[in-house]
Amino acid sequence: MGVDEVFKALADPTRRDLLDALFAEDGQTLTALEERVPMTRFGVMKHLRILEEAGLIVTRKRGREKLHYLNPVPIRLIHDRWVSKYAAPWASALVELKSHLEDTP
Amino acid sequence: MGVDEVFKALADPTRRDLLDALFAEDGQTLTALEERVPMTRFGVMKHLRILEEAGLIVTRKRGREKLHYLNPVPIRLIHDRWVSKYAAPWASALVELKSHLEDTP
DNA sequence: TTGACACGTGACCAAATGGTCACCTATCGT
DNA sequence: ACGATAGGTGACCATTTGGTCACGTGTCAA
User: Fold this and answer.
1) Who has the most CB within 10 Å: A47, A98, B10, B47?
2) Is the Cβ atom of A43 within 7 Å of strand C at any atom?
3) Hey, how many other C-beta atoms are within 10 angstroms of the C-beta on A33?
């Protein structure tokens, strides 16, 4: 559940798509998620495993199927401890640099 | 400046360390940053290039040296468009799952 | 002007990553 | 009991990634 695992898990677009899919409908099964992504079942399994090890999803078994649930806690953590630190203060202090960047292509 | 580049840039611990170093003291030069990280100059250069392409830092040349400045805009963007979506709402709706996760090792 | 200094480029390498497949176990419905 | 269904494992492969190095360019200072 470390910071590094969460960031690495979020670094892949497929994994973010899977989170979005679970955000749209929580508690989906593996084969259901497989249809949402251009990939075989095995690829999806690997991604889900990485997401689970990062703590971003939580699973529960019901019979022969495995249900996947979003877990907002780790993303909330990196938000509080990391992102807000950069996003919140002195955002205006460097806005000049931003506009300067936008002017020069 | 896409979302994917920003997430990928943030996925590496060395790169986050570099951002922290610039957070502590903005406008540092390459050789100054080199001393803060267990790596040769070339490794640092690659990381800085990735951070710059992601838009997370902005550079300015002064004579023979290159100054590196933090740019909070992209991180603010992923915060607003992505992280807050997951971190803000129904964080309490799944807290039961979190505590359940903490109970079962 | 000459040497030391700050940075850049391209080739190169080892390791991690993303993805597939053959095969296997467990559970459901009938 | 049986086939179909849902998921799991390990090996395997191509590509990307993180890092170093030899060498080259521009700039400062004496």
Assistant:
1) B10
2) yes
3) 21
Residue of chain B minimizing CA distance to A26: B94
HSE of A48 in the Cβ direction (CA atoms, 13 Å)? 26
Render pLDDT for B31-49 as a digit per residue (tens, 0 to 9).
Answer: 999 999 999 999 999 999 9
How much is the pTM? 0.86
For residues A52 and A98, is the Cβ–Cβ distance under 8 A? no
pLDDT given for residue B93 in this prediction: 44
Distance set, CA A80 to CA A101, B77, B105 (Å)? 28, 15, 25
Which pair of structure tokens corresponds to residue B83?
């992280």
Residues of chain B with pLDDT under 70: 88-105
Residue A71 in tokens? 């877990």
**C-alpha dihedral sign at A73, A27, B4, B46:** positive
Chain A residues in contact with B101 (beta carbon < 8 A): 55, 58, 71
Q: Compute the distance between CA of residue B28 and CA of residue B81 in angstroms, rounded to an integer.
A: 30
Q: How far is the CA of A102 from the C1' of D28 (A)?
A: 32
Would you say A57 and A70 are in contact if contact means Cβ atoms under 8 Å apart?
yes
Chains A, B: CB contacts within 8 A come to 90
